[in-house]
Design goal:
InterPro entries: LpqE-like (IPR007410), Lxx211020-like (IPR058248), PCuAC_sf (IPR036182). Residues 1-18 form the signal peptide. The protein has two helices and ten strands. The protein is mainly beta. The chain has one domain (19-148): PCu(A)C copper chaperone (Immunoglobulin-like, Sandwich). Strands 1, 2, 3, 4, 5, 6, 7, 8, 9 and 10 form a ten-stranded mixed sheet that branches. Strand 4 and strand 5 (76-82) form a beta hairpin. The structure holds copper (II) ion. The site of copper (II) ion has 4 residues, from strand 8.
Length: 149
């Protein structure tokens, strides 16, 4: 009986503090030794009834993070920086290899693949949502996406 009460109150608490955007599947690619940048991927799901605009992300142990997308310019795939990204009400946006990605610069120290890092996603309305991500190795990523080739 006590357990049921506890579960109910936990559900209630998490409902009260529900975020308007769910951040799932956050993966941070490890920095290749000597490289000045790396990338992070994740999915944003806007569960609210209004559009939400992502304006920035603060990643633990990373000096600077930028929203980037890949664009075909004159037949060449190029990366361009986005000042912000709107997620329409009820929709999801996935950051993934070859598309939208979060570019990471100025790492504090070498990132171990076993590390978990916290990222805080900042929205135009002032909302800040944190998510925990896993640092993944290049080897593993190559393996994971081998079916794309
Ligand atoms: Cu980029």
């Amino acid at each position: 009986m006590k357990l049921i009460t506890l579960v109910c109150s936990l559900l209630f608490v998490s409902h009260v503090h529900a975020n308007s955007v769910d951040i799932t599947d956050l993966k941070l690619r490890e920095f290749i030794p000597g490289a000045s940048s790396s990338v992070a991927y994740f999915t944003l799901s806007n569960t609210s009834k209004e559009a939400r605009t992502l304006v920035g992300v603060n990643v633990e142990g990373i000096g600077r993070a930028e929203l980037h997308q890949h664009q075909l310019i004159d037949g060449m795939m190029k990366m361009t920086q986005l000042p912000s990204l709107e997620i329409p009400a009820g929709q999801s946006v996935t950051f993934e290899p070859g598309g939208l990605h979060l570019m990471l610069f100025e790492p504090d120290a070498h990132q171990n693949t076993s590390d978990k890092k916290t990222a805080v996603f900042i929205f135009k309305n002032g909302e800040q949502i944190s998510s925990q991500g896993q640092v993944i190795s290049l080897m593993r990523e190559t393996h994971d996406h081998s079916h794309h080739h």
